Amino acid sequence: MDTLVEAAVAETLRTGGDDEVRLYVAACAERTVPLFLGMRAGTPDRQADLDLCVESLQGLWCADRALPDAAERVRALEGFPELRPREGGITDVAGTYAFFGVLVLRYALLANASAEAGHALSCGHAALTAVGLLDQSLPGGSVFRAEEEALQKRSLSGDVAGLWEASVASGRERLRAAVSRLPR
């Protein structure tokens, strides 16, 4: 599979252990899922969906083991409107970023359950695609893409001190940038 994920990162995911795969996807999700949370907060009848995403993020950070209900969580995500095909596709800003937030979480949960590099690569690819779209819509170049690439490398470098904090901060900045793109 050809992905946006850098070759060195992809190789480490393929040759590393389960813990590396799980940490990588937890960090990718932490940086991207806030887009879904922010775009859907306050939407009627979506509180259970928001709760599922927050609880899933928390569980993903226990990278030393698979979530026992990861498959059930994936099935629930697949029922989200963002992942159900519809005629005309997604055409609004909020819908686009919400879609990528859910898609990254889906792949993160699949990778968490299986520890398969392919799912992790799909997770990283979706995260990079989301930030690439965000970068294209904002002045200033590819700030988020470069940051995502650096954080993806960092999550596999063995130096994970502060990774959660950096991922949370990055997710907040991405959400702020995406919100600035919403029509007023």
Descriptive notes:
The protein starts with 6 loop residues before the first helix and ends with a helix. α2 (18-40) runs antiparallel to α3, α2 runs antiparallel to α7 and α7 (143-156) packs antiparallel against α8 (163-180). The chain is an all-alpha fold and 184 residues long. The chain has 8 helices and no strands.
Task: Provide the descriptors you would attach to this structure in a database record.
70% helix, mainly alpha, 8 helices, 184 residues
* Oligomeric state of the chains present here: single chain
Q: How much strand content do the residues show? A: under 5%
Can you give the helix content as a percent range? over 70%
Kindly name the structural category.
Answer: mainly alpha
Principal-axis shape equals: globular
Topology order in helix (H) and strand (E) letters? HHHHHHHH
Largest beta sheet, briefly?
Answer: none
Ends: how far apart? 39 Å
Q: How many alpha or pi helices?
A: 8
* Spatial extent as radius of gyration: 15 Å
Mean pLDDT: 93
Q: Are there runs of 5+ residues with pLDDT below 50, and where?
A: none
Number of strands: 0
